[in-house]
UniProtKB/TrEMBL annotation:
<feature type="region of interest" description="Disordered">
    <location>
        <begin position="79"/>
        <end position="142"/>
    </location>
</feature>
<dbReference type="InterPro" id="IPR036866">
    <property type="entry name" value="RibonucZ/Hydroxyglut_hydro"/>
</dbReference>
<dbReference type="InterPro" id="IPR000396">
    <property type="entry name" value="Pdiesterase2"/>
</dbReference>
<dbReference type="Pfam" id="PF02112">
    <property type="entry name" value="PDEase_II"/>
</dbReference>
<dbReference type="GO" id="GO:0047555">
    <property type="term" value="F:3',5'-cyclic-GMP phosphodiesterase activity"/>
</dbReference>
<dbReference type="GO" id="GO:0006198">
    <property type="term" value="P:cAMP catabolic process"/>
</dbReference>
<dbReference type="GO" id="GO:0004115">
    <property type="term" value="F:3',5'-cyclic-AMP phosphodiesterase activity"/>
</dbReference>
<feature type="compositionally biased region" description="Basic and acidic residues">
    <location>
        <begin position="460"/>
        <end position="470"/>
    </location>
</feature>
<feature type="compositionally biased region" description="Low complexity">
    <location>
        <begin position="304"/>
        <end position="314"/>
    </location>
</feature>
<feature type="compositionally biased region" description="Polar residues">
    <location>
        <begin position="323"/>
        <end position="337"/>
    </location>
</feature>
<protein>
    <recommendedName>
        <fullName>3',5'-cyclic-nucleotide phosphodiesterase</fullName>
    </recommendedName>
</protein>
<dbReference type="GO" id="GO:1902660">
    <property type="term" value="P:negative regulation of glucose mediated signaling pathway"/>
</dbReference>
<feature type="compositionally biased region" description="Basic and acidic residues">
    <location>
        <begin position="481"/>
        <end position="490"/>
    </location>
</feature>
<feature type="region of interest" description="Disordered">
    <location>
        <begin position="444"/>
        <end position="530"/>
    </location>
</feature>
<feature type="region of interest" description="Disordered">
    <location>
        <begin position="268"/>
        <end position="342"/>
    </location>
</feature>
Amino acid sequence: MTSSNYESTASVRTGLQGQKPALQVICLGNSGGPCEENVTGFLVCSVEDGWQRGSTIAVDAGSHLAPIIRILERDFPSISDRRPAPRSIENPVPLQVGNGHGTQTPGLSDDLARTSLSPTPSADGEEPPKPEPTVLQHGPFAGLKMPHESARANALHVLRSYISTYLITHPHLDHLSGFAINTAAFHATSKPKTLAALPSTVDAVKQHIFNDVIWPNLTDEDGGVGFVTFQRLKEGGDVMVGEGEGRGYIDVVDGLGVRAFKVSHGVCTKSPPSHHHRGSVAGLADMQNSQGGGSIAPPNLERSFSQSQHSQFSAPATPGLTPRQSFYAPQQPSPRVSSAPEPCVVDSTAYFIRDGESSREVLIFGDVEPDSISLSPRNRLVWQEAARKIAHGLLGGIFIESSYDDSQADAILFGHLNPRHLIAELQTLATLVAEAKAARAFEKSARKRKRSGPNGLDAVARHAVGESERKRSRSAAGRSVTKDTRRGSLPDHSMSDVGISSPGLDADRNPMDTPTGPMSPKTAGREAGD
C-alpha cells in the first residue's frame, strides 16, 4: 500500500498548500501477509477535536492491538527504563522486564512476552498506588494522556477508550482478524464497539466469523453477548442525511462522517450457482475456455452494463424497514449478457472520511483491482467524486494498495493492483481532476463577469426581461400571421415567406409587421371587388 509502515512514519497529517491539518491517519499495518503482525489497519481521528473518548475510527483491523503496543513501546517512557532488572537466586543473570508489571520468560523477545495488561496486586494484597498520567510528547499518539506505566496497558486503554468504530472494507482475514481476536478486550466497556460496513460485509462477518463456530457470537444480534454492534452503511451515501457538501455522509463517530463506495476485488474461486456475488475476474478468457460456457460481451459492453448495477437500493439497516434511497437512483437490472453462469466476485469498499469541522477528507481504499481488467469496473465512479473534491481543495490524501510488482501477470493479480495499473488509475484521476478544475475555473469566471459587468446583476435581469418580451412579441406575430392566413386563405407553402425576427437579427423590423406574400387568384378577386 502507499501508506508507510508504523515502524518508520506511522502517522500522516493531511495538509494542503499550507492549510492547517484536519485529519490524522495512523498506519498500523500495510501488507496482506504472509506475516500476520503487519496486515492492513489504520486509525483516523480529527486533529481539531484532539484525543477525545470514542473519537477515533479504525479502518480495517487485520493488525490492531499489537502494532499499537509496538508504537507505544517505542514512544512511551516505559517502566523498564526507570528501574533495574530483577535478579533471581537460581539465575543470577538479570531477567528482562517487559513493558508491564509481569516478568518476561528468558529466551522470549519483548514482543512475544506474556505480560499482564493490568497492575498486579502487591504481596500484602493492597493495590499499588496509581501512577500520575503521562502525556506523550512525540509520535503518532502525541498529546494523548496515558494513565498507566506500562505501554501494553496503555495500548489497551487506547483500544477500549478511544477507538469506538471499525470501518471494515471487506471480510477477508487480513482486514478483520485483529478485530475478531481483540474482541476479548471489549468486555466491561461503557458501550459496544461498532462495526460499520456495507450490508454484504456485515452479513459475511455475522455468518462466517461470529457464528459460535469460528468465533463466539460476541455481537448484539441473534442472541449474542453484545460486545459488538453493527451499523449498515448505504452505498454512495444516504440522501436523507446531512446537507450541502456534507450531504450523504453518515456519522460513525462524533465529528467524522463516511460515504462508502463499492469497488471490485477479483473473482471468487467457487463457480456459480453454488456461490453468488457480482464482480470481476482477471484472466477472463482462460476461465471461459476452461468452463466451456457461452460467450461474454466485449469489455466495453460489459463495462457499460456494470455501471447500471450501482443504481440499487442498499439493504435496510433493520429487517422489515423500507430502505432509504442511496445516492444512486434505482434503475432496471442489467440485461444478461450470455447464457453461461456469471463469475461471482468479491466486493470491497472505498471510504471517503470527512471531518465535519473543516470539511476536509481522506479517501481510503480496501483491496481493489484496476478497471482495465475488471468485469465490474467501479473505480472511475470513485475517481470522479475524488476529482471534484480535489478541485475544491477538500481531499487531503488517498490511501490505496499496490500488492505486487510489475512482474505479476494480470491473470494472477487476484483482485489487486501493481504499479503499472496503479499509475493508470492515477492517470484517470489526473484527467478527471483537470476537467473538474477547468469546470470550476469557468464557473468562477462566469460569476465574476456577471458581477463586474457595467450594470452588474441588473443588466442580467434586464436582459432576461428583454428575452421574455421578444418571445411574447414573436408569439403575437405568429398569431397575427395565422389570423391573416385564415382570412386570405393563403396556401400552406406561402408560410415559408413569412419572416419572424429572432434575437439579434432584423433589429429594425417591427415584429408585429406581417410581410405581404403572393396572393391567390381568389384573394385578388375579392380585393378587386372591394
